[in-house]
Design brief:
- By secondary structure, the protein is α+β, with helices and mostly antiparallel strands.
- The protein has 2 domains: 230 residues, Zn peptidases (Aminopeptidase); 93 residues, Elongation Factor Tu (Ef-tu), domain 3 (Beta Barrel).
- The chain is built from 8 helices and 18 strands.
- The strands form 3 sheets. Strands 1, 2, 3, 12, 13, 14, 15, 16 and 17 form a 9-stranded mixed sheet that branches. Strands 4-5-8-7-6-9 form a 6-stranded antiparallel barrel.
- The radius of gyration is 21 Å and the shape is globular.
């Protein structure tokens, strides 16, 4: 699974610009499998027969930025797409994806040598309205010659590291790892003669208000729906465990409640019991943020986010446990076996 995750992470696809990743995912699908792409760009794959029974969704979009303005002096103003922490931005190398190709640039950072003696500026976090991108252009005309236009997407430079043989650290594990898990689950069940229909959805614009999932929910009516996403882990020296209770290496987290969602307690217990019967460790947590099931939940199915724990969520170096990814895959397979029997 590691190589698949790495391959998906290397594709640049921010909210609203997911087409390259959708195409990459489609190349992994078996020939002849039933699939649909809707007007927003969501990709839904169907296996089995009969009524819609199960829906699993992972979002394709990653956090990113767009070109908001090109200054006369050649510097680029940007705006964020999704919940990027502005603390990680100064000095960061970015990529502008233009029609002519990638243009590299660095987010400007005022050096301490140019600050007042009290250096109070060092304590200030710059807002996205204050940030600027330096692409080496000395004028707006030079920037335009590079192919840069307003609304061009901007992504982070990609990294992918294995830590201590058991963790992965990369930008975009939220939710490329979820997409990879769904592809692996699909690979394992595609040839089964399922008597009920299972839907695998790869959604758009989750980071911009669960917009893709809203359209998916209006089109499909499964009995059960699961978001395969992340849960922030707070088990670090600078964090509050109560705000990020998911622990890496202890299995997927069943997100019983978050900022926009409350699960059916009986259904949480049902899935927890199923996991335990298959010797799959799980964690039941309350957390912040939200997932695509908050958009699907209003349509009527029983829903639950199955989330693999992540350290340093929404940073450029998110971190997951390889064991948790396998546990999450195994739980998905157990759910399919249980509810399509």
């Amino acid at each position: 699974m590691i190589e698949l995750i790495k391959e998906l992470i290397e594709v640049h696809a921010i909210s609203g610009y997911e087409t390259p990743l959708r195409h990459a995912i489609e190349t992994k699908l078996p020939q002849g499998i039933k699939k649909q792409t809707d007007a927003m760009g969501n990709l839904v794959v169907e296996i089995g027969s009969g009524p819609d029974e199960l829906l699993f969704v992972a979002h394709m979009d990653e956090l990113g930025l767009i070109v908001a303005d090109i200054r006369e002096d050649g510097f680029i103003r940007v705006r964020s797409l999704g919940g990027i922490d502005p603390r990680v931005m100064p000095g960061r190398m970015l990529r502008i994806l233009t029609k002519q190709g990638e243009v590299k640039g660095v987010v400007g950072l005022k050096p301490p040598h140019l600050m007042a003696e009290d250096r109070k500026e060092m304590k200030k976090v710059m807002s996205f309205e204050e940030l600027y991108l330096d692409v080496g252009a000395d004028s707006a005309a030079e920037a335009a010659a590079l192919g840069i236009e307003v609304l061009d997407p901007i992504t982070f430079a990609k990294t992918f590291e294995i830590l201590n043989h058991k963790y992965v650290s990369a930008r975009g594990l939220d939710d490329r790892a979820g997409c990879a898990i769904l592809l692996k689950a699909l690979e394992k069940v595609q040839n089964l003669k399922l008597k009920k229909k299972v839907l695998f959805a790869f959604s758009v614009q989750e980071e911009r208000g669960l917009r893709g999932a809203q359209l998916i929910g209006s089109k499909y009516q499964p009995r059960f729906a699961f978001a395969i996403d992340t849960a922030s882990s707070g088990l670090t020296p600078d964090s509050n465990r109560s705000l990020g209770p998911a622990v890496l290496g202890k299995g997927p987290a069943l997100r019983a409640m978050d900022n926009r969602y409350l699960a059916d307690p009986a259904f949480v217990k049902e899935i927890k019991s199923l996991a335990e019967s298959k010797n799959i460790p799980v964690q039941v947590i309350f957390t912040g943020g939200s997932t695509d099931v908050a958009a699907l939940d209003v349509q009527g199915p029983k829903t639950l986010p199955i989330a693999f724990p992540v350290r340093y969520t929404h940073s450029t170096a998110e971190m997951v446990s390889l064991k948790d990814l396998e546990y999450t895959l195994n739980l998905i397979l157990a759910v399919i076996d249980r509810y399509t029997a």
